[in-house]
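re: ur question from yesterday

yeah so i grabbed the chain u mentioned. its 387 aa long if i counted rite. heres the sequnce exactly as i have it in my notes:
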Amino acid sequence: MSKLIYLDNSATTFPKPEEVYRFMDEFYRNHGVNPGRSGFDAAIETEEMVTETRKLLTSLFNGDDPDRLTFSYNASDTLNMLLQGLSEKGDHVVTTMLEHNSVLRPLYHLEMDGTINVTHVPFDSHGYIDPDDIKKAIKKNTKMVVVNHSSNVIGTIQPLTEIGKICKDAGVYFVVDSSQSAGAIPIDMKAMGIDALAFTGHKCLMGPTGIGGSYVMDGVPVKGTRFGGTGVRSAVKTHLEAFPYRLECGTLNLVGVAGLNAGVKWVLDQGMENLHKQEMALWDKLRLGIQSIPGVVTYCAEDSKNQNPVLCFNVNGFEAGDVGTMLDVDFDIACRTGLHCAPKVHELLNTVDIHGAVRLSIGPFNTEDHINMAIEAVKDVASIKNQ
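ran it thru and got these structure tokens back, copy pasting raw so excuse formatting
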């Protein structure tokens, strides 16, 4: 493992900061009891950590009420709750061709069941959504617009503020998938006009897998779609409508919340802007190096403006999967190949028929040496077809 050059940070950041590992272990050993269910000291202290984490994330997203910050397994879990909880029969939903299957599949199932109709807005040749295309797609029965803040395939960061204003003017709800941006790019829900935000903890927030959640603005009528224990008002037959209980039931992933707590604090201590600047400097070096190799094609990677450190490419004459295997076996480089759970992105990139692309994604623990070795590795792979 020590030799591994890990360039799959869009899947999950790895490694995590030492502070995250340490706090998860220490907290769970000393406070691994059920919060909110009992009045003894350890349970109270555990609930205090959960509340602190709600407050940290509420502040990070510029929300007002920490109770409206709810926890789930991940962004996919959250998006299922938000999209199903907002949809009613006859609604129309606008989304984009940049979306991950965590948005595409819940919407498809709702459409297949006859609940909603969906419009998918394309992105341009540079990888960006034109807000005017969102505006044109909105109909009288449009309930919400769902947009991926930053693509997990091409890394482009979308103009949320402009889209949010269009949604507000049209009186439709604006739902944002921040899986690739929360912890990397500032998110101000008020300034951006976001009504409901889905996030995951194991990517740029530097937490563990199995923890994510949402922030839902006051007045957004998300219905609960799962029911069970809350630890309070147990005699009430129906699940509680108040937040956070509306979108939470049963015992929380406590060790996950602890890891997320430590991850958010680490990001804030390092400085989100500093981390992003460092990663984008490496990305630019990687981009220029890869693009200089004969026979290599990159996608939507013209410059570093409004971009996250994600680079997708193909080597002419090779299947993406074969390139990934060679990078792994011959060079100890971990990457991701295929359609990246975002098939409509690859439709517009014209990479479906060649089974997707190779993705390299940079994280805070990557170095210039990693980038140099990745460039040389791709150069060696590409040279095989030129021999």
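noticed a couple things. The chain has two domains: 5-16+271-386, 18-269. also Residues 5-16+271-386 form a domain with the Aspartate Aminotransferase, domain 1 fold (CATH 3.90.1150.10).
anyway ttyl
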